[in-house]
Amino acid sequence: MEADIGALKPGEMMTVEWRGKPVWILRRTDEMLASLKKTDGEVADPKSDVPFTMQTPDYCKNETRSRAEHKDLLVVVGICSHLGCSPSGPFAAGSNPQLGTDPGFLCPCHGSTFDLAGRVFKNKPAPQNLDVPPYQFLTDTKIVIGKDEKGEA
Ligand code: FES
Question: What is an example of a Pfam family matching this protein (predicted)?
Fold first, then answer.
């Protein structure tokens, strides 16, 4: 599944469908990326060691959960690891009481919250971070989801 991200501005998110699942593509601003330094200490699994339905690709096992050469881009499956609802967001810092002073996503079903890297905050019903599917850049403005250097997922 190819996605054209050329028109995606910093702070904007688009949703595409991959294997019947919604995949969010969020181009994070510098401020959004900076928020991850703080939330690193507030999330349950900062290094994404515990998989939900798929292993986090090695190149995304980092604080931003993104490829090193395109840190701004977050690619995650928008399905909550608790009972499968679709979280809403992204919410800006301070705009949602359940997220407090952090920006992030909120699952409306039972209140799990996720940071802007899709990592679940501590003590929430959702046990794992949102899935990061394999993906790679075809050009600076085009990515393919479900496929990377290791082949097709
Ligand atoms: S399904 Fe998301 S918190 Fe329960």
Answer: Rieske
